[in-house]
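[step 3/7] inverse_fold.run input=structure_tokens len=232
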């Protein structure tokens, strides 16, 4: 990549039993000009042409992470398109997820035969004030009980983790959704050793029944929460 952009293979999670590839990048906001997009053969979407440099840089870094993850998965087609809503369009035969937080971007890719869906999310740790403000929106009663099993985490760190897991869950299940969904539609009943278990609290489609249990994973560092959800 031009200038300061770096892309590295990464897998901070426990083994999930699928042949997925993950790539992440710490990027700089000035790597965001039309020339940078052209140099990396990534289209600059019209609606991002006038966006702030950080948003353009995040999009560029995320798409390059996705392309490299696809390459590592053995995909013959590596461009990741973009739907009218801005969602990534993955090549036939592959599934994946892209995320950004601060100056970090990441992507995960896997062959479609390996799972029904996959979601990746990065979040900067919330402040105590921000966590308190959104906690009633994000947390159900079981989430709060499960958070109690991790006393080493502050309230803000726990809320950030639950928020991120539910974001990863949404990315994993969104292609199968038959109804609007929110944070209240899933609960987390286990967090231990980098693994999580999520459960749907109501039916979201024929493929996503109430009570469905879904595997997750997490990795915590002082400046970033990483989560992954795999829908088998």
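[step 3/7] decode complete -> sequence:
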């Amino acid at each position: 990549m031009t200038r300061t952009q770096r892309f590295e293979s990464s897998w901070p999670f426990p083994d999930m039993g699928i042949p997925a590839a993950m790539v992440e990048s710490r990027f700089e906001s000035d790597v965001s000009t039309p020339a940078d997009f052209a140099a990396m053969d990534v289209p600059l979407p019209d609606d991002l042409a006038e966006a702030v440099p950080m948003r353009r840089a995040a999009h560029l870094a995320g798409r390059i992470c996705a392309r490299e993850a696809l390459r590592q998965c053995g995909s013959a087609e590596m461009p990741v398109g973009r739907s009218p809503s801005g969602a990534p369009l993955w090549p036939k035969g592959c599934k994946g997820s892209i995320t950004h937080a601060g100056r970090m971007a990441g992507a995960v890719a896997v062959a479609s035969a390996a799972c029904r869906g996959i979601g990746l999310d990065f979040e900067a740790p919330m402040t105590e004030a921000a966590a308190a403000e959104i906690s009633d929106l994000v947390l159900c009663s079981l989430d709060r009980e499960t958070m109690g099993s991790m006393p080493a985490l502050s309230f803000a760190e726990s809320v950030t983790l639950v928020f991120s897991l539910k974001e990863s869950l949404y990315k994993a299940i969104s292609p199968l959704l038959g109804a609007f969904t929110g944070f209240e539609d899933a609960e987390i009943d286990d967090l231990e050793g980098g693994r999580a278990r999520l459960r749907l609290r109501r039916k979201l489609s024929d493929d996503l029944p109430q009570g469905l249990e879904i595997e997750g994973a997490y990795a915590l560092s002082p400046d970033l929460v990483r989560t992954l959800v795999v829908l088998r």
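[step 4/7] annotate
The chain has a mean pLDDT of 95.
The helical segments are 34-39, 53-72, 128-138, 141-147, 155-173.
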